[in-house]
Amino acid sequence: MQLMVDWGDNVYKVHVYMNCCFLYFLFNLEQNAGLLQRIDSDVASKIKEIVVEDGVANVEEMQRHLTSFVTKNVTPALSKTNRRFAPTKKVIRYHMNKAAKKGCDSSDDQHNLVQLVSVLSV
Q1: CA gap 34, 40 in Å, rounded
Q2: What's the number of domains the chain is made of?
Q3: Known InterPro entries for this protein (predicted)?
Q4: Are 59 and 96 in contact (CB under 8 A)?
């Protein structure tokens, strides 16, 4: 492959040798750039809120909630390949499990447990 590079007043010919898979990724870089992004903090907190308050345990239902949340609050023009605002099912499941486990160890439960143990040990 040969590229023409314009550097000020000079024009250079650059010969590039790459395999076809890398070139495909390079030309689709804009589309593929969203695949490596972390989930947005607002989306992660929304997952936690929906799990704790509404008790949603189904990943497909959570995807529907997140799609409506992103289109209403963030921006409706984002593509579905942008993993920041449209996470995969695996990422959604991870955040749902994390939120559910976090709710199991509330400070009130720990306080009550300490009181019960102190009463039983007497």
Answers
A1: 12
A2: 1
A3: CaRF (IPR029309)
A4: yes
- Provide the token pair at 32: 């593929």
Cα angle: 37, vertex 76, 25; to 5 degrees: 40
Write the DSSP symbol of residue 34. Answer: G
Q: What's the CA gap between 43 and 69, in Å, rounded?
A: 8
d(CA 45, CA 42): 5
What does the block give as tokens for 26?
Answer: 């390079």
> Does residue 112 form part of some domain?
no
Q: List, for residues 44-103, the tens digit of each pLDDT value.
A: 999 999 998 888 999 999 999 998 898 888 766 665 668 888 899 999 999 999 998 876
Q: Is residue 59 packed enough to be buried (19+ CB in 10 Å), middle (13-18) or exposed (0-12)? A: middle
Could you report how far apart the first and last alpha carbons of the chain are, in Å?
83
Give the whole-angstrom CA distance, residue 73 versus residue 76: 8
- The H or E element that residue 114 is part of is helix 107-121
